[in-house]
Amino acid sequence: MTKPLHPGQLRWQCRRGLLELDVLLGNFLERKYPAISSHQQTAFAALLESTDQELINWLLIRDSLPADSSLQEIVFMLRAGV
User: pTM higher than 0.90 for the full model?
Assistant: First the structure.
C-alpha cells in the first residue's frame, strides 16, 4: 500500500474527471483527513490511485466495494460523510 502523501499532493490527486468526485474527495481531505489515523491516511492515498470508474462505483453508485479491507474502511467513511 502507498505511504501517506503531503496534503498538497493529495489535493492534486483528489481532482478527478467528475465534479462530484472532486467535491467528495476534496471535502474529505480538508475536513477529515488530518484527524484520521496514519493507517487510514495511507489507505486514502491508496484509494486515490483507483480509476474514476472504480471510485464512481464505490462512492456514488455504491454497487461494489474494493477488495482491500483498508480501502473499504475509507469508502465507508466517504459514503457516510465522516
Answer: no
